[in-house]
Amino acid sequence: MADSETLNGPGPGPTPGSTGTGTDPGTGTGTGAAQVPGQRAAAAGPGRGGRPRRAVARRLAVLVLVLVVLCLPPWWTLLAAGTGWPLPVVLAGTAVLAAWLVGFPFLMVAGHRSRSRNDRAARIADTSLGVVWVLWTCSVLGALADALLAGFGVGGTGRARLVAAAVLLLAAVLLAWGHHEAMRVPRVRRLDVHLPRLGRGLDGTRVVLLADTHYGPIDRAAWSAEVTAAVNALDPDVVVHAGDIADGTPEQRRDQAAPLGAVRARLARVYVTGNHEYGSEAQGWLDRMAELGWEALHNRHVLVERDGDALVLAGVDDVTAASSGLTGHRADLDAALAGADPDLPVLLVAHQPKYVPRAAAAGIDLQLSGHTHGGQIWPFRYLVRLDQPVVQGLSRHGERTQLYTSRGTGFWGPPFRVLAPSEITLLTLRAGGATA
Questions:
Q1: Are 355 and 369 in contact (CB under 8 A)?
Q2: CA-CA distance, 110 to 118, in Å (whole number)?
Q3: Which of 52, 107, 320, 326 satisfies CB 3.0 to 4.6 Å to 275 for a cystine?
Q4: Angle at Cα 280 formed by Cα 100 and Cα 126, nearest 5°?
């Protein structure tokens, strides 16, 4: 059965002139689903005990392979490729890389996977991962430069040491610049989006999109307050948070999320879960955002109206929700649109861009997503593209549907952004006209 309620508008409290309708498929508990009777016994039955061990062994083998691949190019370019360094230098550099390779998994588990979430361990793990990734990229480029120089007959120890020095210098510059880009308040990215079915009364509607704030081990409460101020300065009608609000529970990240309660919007403030919420008490984050005055689009929609015209704001849980074990959590577009007038335009919020085929099949007018971070640290964007149809920007899918993919407002893990700047997005909706 559809429900009705008054939407939240400027600051905490109700917003006149807009009502919410939709179907909520369930709430869940935020700590996991109830155990199905007999499930544990079945999992431990004959012939099954070795499967979890084999799965763990496979994951461990993949992890070791990835870490070795990350370490080999820096080791080769900086220490072994004809540089002729004294043996103590080679041994010291090798020991540093080996120590990282061994210690990194333990730091990641302590910082991100354990119940206690040791923020110090997470900061060390995340930062070191970013450093090694940038070193890997620069080392690969350095190896290519070394081969090119060798082709021109520039040889010897001098060439190898010059390349090694250039790799270290380039990596240091990229890391310093990338850290500044990650920690700064994002620039505002502005664009008009034409929706042929949008009524004239809603022409010029200002939608501000936030995504991937990832409040986490680095305390960014002050940054969060500055982002809120930047959003309010844009005088939005609607503010959307497209998920991945934090790495950590609502209690752990309470101070960092608190400034979101001061975000102002004339018509609505709406939020959907991302994949990271499902490792950090997803239902708790839905409750926390409701506490801050936001409308949680948990497979449901709300209606915003102005000057006699209406727009459906719908949202779905992240595509990973179904595997989380939380009751009532899954991406369910049918539930999100239940009771909506099919003749009205629909703006759908779905955390991951790869939900767009489902949106296009349903005739959605505009989907807003995040998740990709624009790749965050080049050239990771090319790996992201293997999993997602779009990495960033406005794109067209099918006859009617447009998709806008944000590069994200914050960052995940490594506190660096290289050639993938963060953004606060201001989308001005236009009635009729051209499409993407």
A1: yes
A2: 6
A3: 320
A4: 20
Strands 238-241, 295-296: parallel, antiparallel or unpaired by DSSP? unpaired
Residue among 185, 364, 347 nearest 272 (CA): 347
Alpha-carbon span 218 to 413, nearest angstrom: 10
- pTM for the model stands at 0.85
Q: At what angle do helices 87-108 and 50-75 cross, to 10 degrees?
A: 150
What single-letter DSSP state applies at residue 34? P
d(Cα 42, Cα 64) in Å, to the nearest integer?
A: 31
* 75 contacts 89 by C-beta, under 8 angstroms: no
Q: Are 54 and 354 in contact (CB under 8 A)?
A: no
The model's pLDDT over 128-175, given as tens digits with 9 standing for 90+, comes to 999 999 999 999 999 999 888 888 877 777 889 999 999 999 999 999
pLDDT tens-place string over residues 270-291: 999 999 999 889 999 999 999 9
Distance, in Å, from the CA atom of 305 to the CA atom of 336, rounded to the nearest integer, reads 18
- Distance of alpha carbon 150 from alpha carbon 300, whole angstroms: 62
Instruction: Quick: pLDDT tens for 343-391.
Output: 999 999 999 999 999 999 999 999 999 999 999 999 999 999 999 999 9
Collapsing DSSP to helix, strand or coil, 299 comes out as coil
Pairing of strands 205-210, 423-431: antiparallel
Residues ≥6 apart with Cβ < 8 Å to 402:
193, 195, 365, 366, 367, 394, 395, 396, 435, 436
Which CATH number is 188-431 given? 3.60.21.10
Please report the DSSP string for 130-184 in residue order.
Answer: HHHHHHHHHHHHHHHHHHHHHHTT--SHHHHHHHHHHHHHHHHHHHHHHHHHHHS
Task: Collect all residues with Cβ–Cβ distance below 8 Å to 126 and sequence separation of at least 6.
Answer: 111, 217, 413, 414, 415
Tokens of 128: 């070191």
Q: How many helices (H) and strands (E) in the chain?
A: 11, 14
Task: Give the span between the Cα atoms of 274 and 406, in whole angstroms.
Answer: 13
Distance CA 231, CA 251 (A): 24
The CATH 3.60.21.10 portion of the chain extends over 188-431
The residues that bridge with 367 in the sheet, in sequence order, are 348, 403
- If pLDDT is split at 50, 70 and 90, which confidence band does 269 have? very high
Residues paired with 225 in a beta bridge = none
- Token pair in block for residue 406: 């944000």
Q: Distance between CA 65 and CA 59 in Å, rounded?
A: 10
- Is residue 326 within 8 Å of residue 278, measured between CB atoms? yes
Q: How many residues does the chain have?
A: 436
